[in-house]
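Batch manifest line 216
LIGAND: zinc ion
JOB: complex structure
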Amino acid sequence: MDKALYLTFDDGPNEPYTSQILDILKTFGARATFFVCGENIERHPQSLKNIYDAGHAIGNHSFSHNIKHVLLAGQILKDEIMRTNRHIKMYTGVDNHLYRSPWGLCMPWLKPWLKQNGFFTYHWNIMAFDWSQPPANFIADHIIKRAFPGAIVLLHDGHENIGTDRRQTVKALSAVLGELAGQGYSFHSLDNNIFHPHKIIKDFAADLYLSLKYYI
Ligand SMILES: [Zn+2]
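JOB STATUS: finished
ARTIFACT:
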């Protein structure tokens, strides 16, 4: 896996885009990771099953993607994470230990709890602003120019706890896979057990920085 790339899709499942992404990944023999929201699992349970059946990894991205729950110390976010994990277990049988904070914003009070509960927290190395729906060629170029072996790429099949148009992301994905496969890259899922060189558990300042970058 010298030139491995780790594609991740956040905020789903969200149809028809999750299914379209699965089709494209299959065409290229690519594996990826889907950081799902519990509310969206309730909307699209079959999509979650399809992700799992296709051999991709599934991670927890909270239940409601609610900024207040992410920022305020308290039980609500912990309950959300556990509730989403129960949904993942119910539809796939998997005891999930992957977590990505909404907006990449993992507050200091949550980190010891994540560790105690055996969660691996993943941020990303490359993002392409696809949440704001730029043209597909912008998304694709942004990723292709910045790709490096071992990088984790942030993309979105949904939007927070509601659906949205992800046509540009879907279109960009084909271009990214086509170009980078030609450059010798292979595409893999994160999983609960691998040590990943870019698994980043950052301090709060770094989290905040990543989150601010997310909005710019
Ligand atoms: Zn998100």
